[in-house]
Amino acid sequence: MKDTIIIYFMGMDGSGKSTLSSYLCGELKRRGHHVRRVWWLEGEYSLQRKLFRVIGGSNLLRFDVSPEHAGIGAQREQGPLMTKIFSEVWPRLVLINYVIFGIRRVWIPKKTAKERIMIFDRYIYDVVFSLCQEFGYPETKKVSLLRRYAKLLPIPDKILLIEVPPDIAFLRKKEEITSAENAKALWENYQELFGLVDHVFPGKCTIIDNTRDVEIVKKEILEQVISFVQ
Question: Could you give the dihedral angle defined by the CA atoms of residues 127, 128, 130 and 134, in that order, rounded to the nearest 10 degrees?
Fold first, then answer.
């Protein structure tokens, strides 16, 4: 039996990844494939994550960290020792929780062949990058963490960066992004994340220009994926 195929949609809020990943899931099902789509932010609403937010005084994990929030995790109003302990312990707790989430939502379905294809709207790499930004980690540590968590959860077969200019993303998600300046910063963050992921997992990444007619974009995504499933 062929192994389960994992497709990972990456992109800032407003890029269109949720719409396009939902389309791909529906289209593959229509063609007779066993498919499941997972929204990675489901993990933010687990009982463990709710408890972590109470303990850490944290809101929803900042998957799109703008400069005004960068380094916020390391600048809490604790003494130097508590700040150091928090900055070391908190990211580990969050990532361990997401590994558990990944085992339930990725490894178990993959090993039981429950679904032939799994489509992810965001993935563990978004979590790693967000925490790295929040705690001001250097690029070397970002790469190290991406490699480490790649050993714990399956590496996607195809990674699609859904790309739109920051001004378009801002128009689509004004409430979430809050300003054009934030939109530009968040777009730059995803350029960096894509570059890191492409470096760690060469040959798996593709940029999808989502400023074109939506039917053209859908056709390109379907063609990108269909070679894996035939």
Answer: 130
Spans of all domains in the chain: 5-229
CATH classification for the domain delimited by 5-229, as one of 1.10.287.470, 3.40.50.20, 3.90.550.10, 3.40.50.300 = 3.40.50.300
Q: Residue 8 — φ and ψ, nearest 5°?
A: -120, 120
Give the single-character DSSP code of 105. Answer: I
Q: How far is the C-alpha of 213 from the C-alpha of 25, rounded, in Å?
A: 19
Token couple for 199: 């470096």
pLDDT in tens, 90-119: 777 777 878 888 888 888 777 776 678 999
- Closest C-alpha among 63, 29, 24 to residue 176: 63
CA distances (Å), 95 to each of 8, 204, 211, in order? Answer: 18, 23, 33
CA 188 to CA 192: how far, in whole Å? 6
Q: How many angstroms separate the most distant Cα atoms in the chain?
A: 58
Report whether 61 contacts 128 (CB < 8 A): no
Q: Residue 206 carries which DSSP code?
A: E
Residue 187, amino acid: W
Residue 95's SS3 state is: helix
* Residue 74 pLDDT greater than 50, yes or no: no
